[in-house]
UniProtKB/TrEMBL annotation:
InterPro entries reported for this sequence: Lcl_C (IPR011460)
UniProt lineage: Bacteria, Pseudomonadati, Campylobacterota, Epsilonproteobacteria, Campylobacterales
UniProt keyword annotation of Coiled coil present: yes
Coiled coil: 177-211
Protein name according to UniProt: Lcl C-terminal domain-containing protein
Keywords, alphabetical: Coiled coil
Alphabetized Pfam families for the sequence: Lcl_C (PF07603)
Amino acid sequence: MYGDFIVRKTKSIVQLFLAIFIMFSLSGCLPNNEELQVMLDQNSITKKFYIKNDTNVYDGYGKDKKVLDTLKRGKQYETADIKDNYVKVAKSDTNELKSDVWVSMDEIEEEPTYFVTLIVDVPNANILINGEKYEPNMRLPKGKYIINISAEQFLDKSLEIDVQEDTKESITLEFDVEAQKERLAKEKIEKEKIERKKREKERLAKEIKDSIYIDNTQKLMWQDNIIVSVAKKPWLSKENFDAKKDNDTSGDTAASYCKNIVIANLKDWRLPTKDELKNLFAQKERLKHVAADWYWSSTSNTNNGERAWTIHFNNGDGYSDLKDANNFVRCVRDGIKLPK
């Protein structure tokens, strides 16, 4: 009897020490509330959390960890410890766990979120949820959200959705008839504009080909249309010639003609000098239109103000003619850069 008492006493003492050891071990492994809060703040998570997706949980957080169980999406748990991007959940009467487990921080969230899938019948529509760009299968907490949708050629649409679970919404946009009419009108105008530019470019190219000779030797651009072999002008008008206004080229004169002529949208033409005409005569075979006659230059006779020099395009001779005489005119402009 005494022996049984000793055995019972010894057993009680062992159980007491074992309980003390377990309590000491637990208090040594788990952080206190202050330490845990610091770790929670450092990792930007809350003590209570939800499982984002059905996920495996482990017996530890190291490389050799083993799967112990699967936690279901949407269930709430409480953080007991944090190690290496893993959260420890201690077994309790409320969570129905068979043992303590570790779960990756990537699989937890502060509040439950749900998939929101929006199916719009117009490709590449612009979709905003509460002013933020919608991403396919995005997740949102419970609540009401304003959806705004816009797409070219379609009427804008706005609607409200109430997210309480995974939500899928099919959305149809109405065709914007007025916008389509406006778009077609703009396209027509733009097309006509392009056609006009094309025709103008073709016209310029033809006019340049038919009416201009490029003098690469003198870096000059010469008038070379049918008019240079048809039209004649005086150097001075009769009124100015009779009034002895030897340098007043106003009126219907060769200089005024060149000043006002427009060829291939180019306006800055002038009457050529005697030397320029003489050098052009050497290139006569390259010209399309030539009269075998006298052409005015802008060079006056320095010895007689009533006369100015002409060049004959049959033999290249020069002659100082009276300024009221009518001779052929071929205008020139500086440079050889053509309009595009």
